[in-house]
Design a protein that fits this description.
Beta-Lactamase; Alpha-Beta Plaits; TIM Barrel; 3 domains; 8-stranded mixed beta barrel; 23 helices; 45% helix; binds ligand C2E; binds magnesium ion
């Protein structure tokens, strides 16, 4: 604290008072006292028995902004702002440090730690009191503030700022309480629901984060309507909400609530005049005393949510024990996958695509295989979804594209008849979110000196449905280069005819589920015929997948289906096997 030069008059003023009140103190002693207290960096105030101020030090004057003559002869109570209300209160606090505040001349408060002590008590008349006040440090003030605001802080730490709902921390604490209750009372059960909004990112990206926030608040309000006072609704973070149903946490009631929640999402939300629809996937686990830890409950609800997300938008899943094992398997698979790329455990197989009339091979579809050192050959249907989830699909797809293109370039040089061979490569949905997908493809093709027309990319309907605009823009760029595009597995997804028109596909691949029952079921035959006509109308080529029998081949030829692939002609072949077919069969598959 800065000391300001002392006013000479006020020095003498304080001394005179001390001298007058305590006649047995010599003038020299009074000067000593004054000098000593002026060296102290805390506020020191000398009081008589009536708590009238006799002397103050410079620190007090600096701290409170008074001149000395404004304080001398005043009651100390004029300076105290709180906690100490009257004389008895002050006397009770002798010899104890307590927190209080002095009032400054300008009316502001200074938080201080005050210590009052009797210093001179020859008799009652001569009693004096010294008040030493230390300005409270910043930390101490914060501590004080925390104490005062403890309940507010407790609330803030356990609630989400945006929605004012309980947050993850409070959710976990409440979950622990429910679990303990279930352990004490084995008849008690409760359920836990985790809701994850579908495509919330899209809302954020299209309408902006403020609108996204607004939607979260509205969803929180809407969900609250279905929550009993004993239940907990929390925002767990991002677009995830959690519900603990303590009141009637059985399966039947839980499903009733899920139904209500689903219905509530069928109504639109108003965002700044826009009408927006949202939906949520829900993972559910019914809990009782069999659960030992809160973490296990969350793990299971998450596993159920994961399954719900895989199914479709707006679906729910109730946890089953197998999901836990699936999740463990997935994790194991993910670990192994990471190593597999480095260890070169992947292999591309090549399934011939043939002209049905002539059996001439027009190209190959590259199909990935994983030769796991312990588990043997693992099907892509098993590991591609895991690789997509973890992002490993990106490096893996780069490898596949490069490998397939390199191979076809090599085979094109074998003979005259193999010059025009085409390689079909499957694209995964995740690849469309890669920023430089088109550039990567261009680079691969150019590095190999390959003709763009000899590369065909296969895309499933599910890829398109996730992000139609973006996918269309990417496909249009690829098409403009001369790369061919194929709609894979047609008939298994949404099969919207508008897609065929909207996207620049060259080829339509009829899913094998149509082909395989075609010889037994008339309706499949008719459907296949319709699809072929449709594709012709749109100017697309058709490839029938999964041809397994001679009858299917014959039928497809009669339906004027130009191309096909399937076990009847050849299974996916190793590179050596495929090369042999090209060489020995002069690029023709005789069956
Ligand atoms: P897809 O692209 O529709 O590939 C055709 C699948 O049908 C292949 O299964 C193939 O082996 C199988 N298949 C071919 N002919 C017949 C037949 O006559 N009968 C039967 N029952 N099946 C036949 P695969 O190799 O197990 O691949 C499954 C799926 O995994 C593929 O379906 C594709 O979606 C995906 N996939 C495979 N390789 C890759 C890849 O390199 N990258 C990406 N992103 N996905 C791939
Ligand atoms: Mg395919
Ligand atoms: Mg297919």
């Amino acid at each position: 604290m800065n000391n300001t030069p002392q006013d000479k008059n006020t020095v003498s003023l304080g001394l005179t008072h001390l001298n007058q009140r305590f006649s047995d103190l010599t003038p020299v002693a009074c000067i000593w006292i004054k000098t000593i207290i002026n060296t102290i960096n805390d506020s020191v105030i000398l009081l008589d028995k009536n708590y009238t101020i006799l002397m103050v030090n410079q620190t007090t004057l600096n701290l409170l902004g008074y001149r000395e003559n404004e304080l001398i002869n005043q009651s100390i109570f004029n300076l105290l702002s709180k906690n100490i209300k009257d004389i008895s209160d002050l006397e009770n606090s002798f010899n104890k440090t307590r927190e209080t505040a002095y009032l400054k001349k300008d009316g502001q408060k200074v938080e201080v730690l005050l210590l009052n002590q009797l210093i001179y008590a020859k008799n009652q008349e001569n009693m004096a009191i010294i008040s030493i006040a230390k300005e409270m440090s910043q930390e101490k003030r914060i501590e004080q503030l925390i104490k005062e605001n403890e309940s507010q802080l407790y609330y803030d730490l356990r609630h989400d700022k945006l929605t004012s709902l309980p947050n993850r921390r409070l959710f976990l604490e409440e979950l622990e309480i429910s679990l303990q209750k279930a352990h004490k009372n084995t008849n008690f059960s409760f359920s836990v629901l985790i809701l994850d909004l579908d495509q919330f990112k899209l809302i954020n990206n299209s309408y902006g984060h403020l609108m996204g926030d607004n939607l979260l608040i509205q969803i929180g309000d809407r969900l609250q309507q279905y929550i009993h006072s004993q239940d907990i609704l929390a925002r767990l973070g991002g677009d995830e909400f959690g519900i603990i149903l303590n009141h009637l946490g059985n399966l039947e009631h839980t499903l009733e609530i899920v139904d209500l929640i689903k219905q509530s999402f069928s109504r639109s939300f108003q965002l700044n005049g826009y009408e927006v629809y949202s939906s949520a996937s829900i993972g559910i686990t019914i809990c009782d005393f069999n659960y030992q830890r809160v973490g296990d409950i969350l793990r299971d609800a998450d596993a159920a949510l994961h399954q719900a997300k895989i199914k479709d938008k707006a679906s729910y899943t109730i946890f089953r024990q197998e999901m836990y094992f699936n999740a463990v398997n997935r994790l194991q698979l993910d670990n192994d996958l990471r190593r597999a790329i480095d260890r070169k455990e992947f292999e591309l197989r090549y399934q011939p695509i043939v002209e049905l009339e002539t059996q001439k091979i027009i190209g190959f579809e590259g199909l990935i295989r994983w030769k796991h050192p312990e588990k043997g050959l693992i099907s892509p249907a098993k590991f591609i979804p895991v690789a997509e989830e973890t992002g490993l699909i990106v490096p893996l797809s780069n490898w596949i594209l490069n490998e397939g293109c390199q191979q076809i370039c090599q085979w094109q040089k074998i003979s005259d008849s193999s010059q025009g061979l085409i390689i079909s490569i499957n694209l995964s949905v995740k690849q469309f979110s890669e920023k430089n997908l088109v550039e990567k493809i261009i680079k691969t093709v150019q590095n190999l000196g390959m003709n763009y027309h000899c590369l065909k990319l296969e895309i499933t309907e599910s890829c398109i449905i996730k992000n139609p605009e973006e996918v269309r823009s990417i496909l249009t760029q690829l098409k403009s280069l001369g790369i061919q595009l194929s709609m894979d597995d047609f008939g298994t997804g949404y099969s919207s005819l508008s897609y065929l028109h909207y996207f620049p596909f060259d080829t339509l691949k009829i899913d094998r589920s149509f082909i395989q029952n075609m010889d037994k079921k008339n309706d499949k035959l008719r459907l296949t015929q319709t699809i072929i006509h449709l594709a012709n109308d749109f100017g697309m080529e058709v490839i029938a997948e999964g041809i397994e029998t001679r009858e299917q081949w014959e039928q497809l030829k009669q339906l004027d289906c130009p191309y096909g692939q399937g076990y009847y002609f050849a299974k996916p072949l190793t590179a050596q096997e495929a090369e042999k077919v090209i060489l020995e069969g002069n690029n023709r598959l005789m069956v």
